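Build the 3D complex.
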Amino acid sequence: MSDKLDELKAILGEVADLGSAAAVLSWDQQANMPPAGGEARGQQLATLGKIAQQMATSEKVGKLIDDLKKEFEGADADSDDAAYVRVAARNYDKAVRVPPEFVAEQAVVTTKAFEAWVEAKGKSDFSIFRPHLEKVLDLVKKYISFFPPADHPYDTLLDDFEPGMKTSDVQDIFNPLRPKQVDLLKKIAKKPQVKDAFLYKKYNEKKLWDFGEEVAKAFGYDFNRGRQDKVPHPFQTTFSVNDVRITTRFEADKPLAMLFSTMHESGHAMYEQGVNPAYERTPLLGGTSLAVHESQSRMWENLVGRSMPFWEHFYPGFKKIFPSQLDGVSLKAFYKAINKVEPSFIRVNADEATYNMHIMLRLELEIAMVEGKVDIKDLPDLWNTKMQEYLGVTPPNDAQGVLQDVHWSYGAIGYFSTYALGNLVSAQLWEKINKDIPDLDDQIGKGKFDALLGWLREKIHQYGHKYDPQDLVQKVTGSRINSAPYVRYLTKKYSDIYGL
Amino acid sequence: MSDKLDELKAILGEVADLGSAAAVLSWDQQANMPPAGGEARGQQLATLGKIAQQMATSEKVGKLIDDLKKEFEGADADSDDAAYVRVAARNYDKAVRVPPEFVAEQAVVTTKAFEAWVEAKGKSDFSIFRPHLEKVLDLVKKYISFFPPADHPYDTLLDDFEPGMKTSDVQDIFNPLRPKQVDLLKKIAKKPQVKDAFLYKKYNEKKLWDFGEEVAKAFGYDFNRGRQDKVPHPFQTTFSVNDVRITTRFEADKPLAMLFSTMHESGHAMYEQGVNPAYERTPLLGGTSLAVHESQSRMWENLVGRSMPFWEHFYPGFKKIFPSQLDGVSLKAFYKAINKVEPSFIRVNADEATYNMHIMLRLELEIAMVEGKVDIKDLPDLWNTKMQEYLGVTPPNDAQGVLQDVHWSYGAIGYFSTYALGNLVSAQLWEKINKDIPDLDDQIGKGKFDALLGWLREKIHQYGHKYDPQDLVQKVTGSRINSAPYVRYLTKKYSDIYGL
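Done.
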């Protein structure tokens, strides 16, 4: 191996350590930190970020990367070292374009915007958030200006989460999907609604927690290299390929959400646990993109966790734990209830058939914002109009409409679409998996997931960041990301449940 | 404020942030980390340590400190800024003397020594540990050689934990104390032993935990700026003046140890929570020395937590929680039991009357090792001889003798004495507190601790590292550290309990 590569790896290894340390601090902030600890923690995270940024963008790193790019010209692009240099060079290029003063300014603006968003949502008053969102949008535009002009300014934002993906790619995927999903929803709406009142009875938190961990273990999430904790907003985080943690929460008004959240975060975690250990402390560690990551979490939560075979195996035990809540509820009735389709206001509570519509709405608004084609003051009305158009419902207030998600307050514009893309990829992979493992349903019906996880490890997980998302999906399924498998999946599933 | 002081504070503020981040990672390692996470965590901690060391010992910092020392010559030594420069200069001077290669070598040697110690203790076979301890001692001697010659080579080690304290100071304190403690123990040994079998019944862990937290809250440990977690070996740790955590453990064979451990660690934590918030992110944050720190933990654990007034208030409630365990046990009988004096092999389980003897034994052996006056192979015999001499017992094996403590395996030679000094300081302060708060016993008997904590905050806690330990004790009590108050305290307490 080249001496220069060794040298770069030593530096970026330390940068990775600082990133892992910051991840531990952030996890602790959510999971453990006493209320008064926030200010010091913010300062500690700022220092870690600043030092990591300085190290990652030093002249020395720039020189090493320049030299290594030349050295690896014409080298086997499929080798780990070539991938390392490619990804390190891309990260470096992005990092040096954004001046530290901008990062500092962004931190100040988004901290205030977040506070304003909390207040605005609490009072359901968009006017409180509006001036802050305008400033956030100005910063997003400024951020775009640091990069070479792309086909579309939104491309620059998207590329941070889906390397190589363009706005037009996403539009080409979503445009044909939208009418199909709207059509499916209309058909479902004409059918009698399934009953699900028993899902909202009182369920014991500890028992749900234990059942969730039993399921996660059965899936193959390795608790020797992970753990679950309680937080206000669930997430998955990685400190090392051997320390990959998940978090969940309990909401008394929708108790089973905790169970599906555990499955979801386990899906993310198994991806991170499955990356080639040789990528530890390198930019190749972690999932390749948010969409591919979401394909894993959604697969375990929905394609597995909301499937009939899964519950064929787990329902008898689950019913024993909650006998009074599920008294007289058949497997079929339970299965239908957890798959109930109902247009609703809140994205995070949306079912599989309506979820993507929430995303498309946000993507369209974000693109319009970046293009300057929408005045921020008009966002609430636009939001509500689109909700009516796509889902047939109009939020009663802005707290349940344009103010529901936190993302814009911290400047995270550009990644909502990855959630929907993740759904699509999960179904694409699922069709291929079922070809490769023809008795997959039978295995799941027996509570066996090792062949499924083995397939995912071999085809997806081990590669980490080595391949860009579209290339990886192409390599595994033979096609780029597209919506056809997801439409087939939804149609089949809901035809059965709703008798379409 | 001087521009240079601002500049130094900015750099050392970031060094402090890195230290806090490392503390979070270490805490997580003990309290939460999944089994497989250790290797990556070690790497992350090494990187944080390396970067902090580079920043703290940079030429720029050296130049700033040189300039500031000149600038502050003749300035009011009692000002916070003067204390800042003094402590920063001392830390810098120590840090630059120790070469990074030495730190790296030490890490390798002590990691292996720790593993060998674990095995040696498990097998009660000193010969496994011996060659490693020899290497550790060589490194300790090498460490001493980086510093200017002191009156005694052991001074250099001691100064890291008790700034300004010399070996002869400690010997001058311990020498007159030893015969008095031996004499007291002999008198106690002639009296009938107190009964304490009820302390070793089965106690519910959760109930003890809750009672312990109730006591810690009553003391004044602020859970809004702290929390308690479970670990294999209890400790207290600080991430900020507003995030000071404690840990504890449950041992089924001595259940109440958890309660006294919570009191002990709360004492440390209240010290750290009480430091002037202006010292955040500076070298002045934290307790001034290990001995003064231990004076706080011992005071809350022993002088308060094992006192009659404390249990006059808490015993009725405690008895309600554990009615069967304490059936027929009077307050007086309980008080006597938790203060039982019994020479034993293990330091960490020692009572107030025997504890210091364990320390003196270690101090004498450490000094002899550093002086080269003892061959490592002779340590077990020397240990056992001294145990017989001071406590009248001989360990049945090395696991319960020379191998019992982990400290030497990681090169921590020089700080055992601070534990005993802490006991002495606690009694010195206690006499002064009782003069300043004449009804302290009555207050404690009512479960009121605010006047006591207020006194400690005002006289000790707020100053953090501002004053060196001897100066602080002198300032508060009018005397340097000495053993007379502790002897008076022990004599009075055990005269009552054992009817001497």
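Chain B is about 65% helix and 5% strand.
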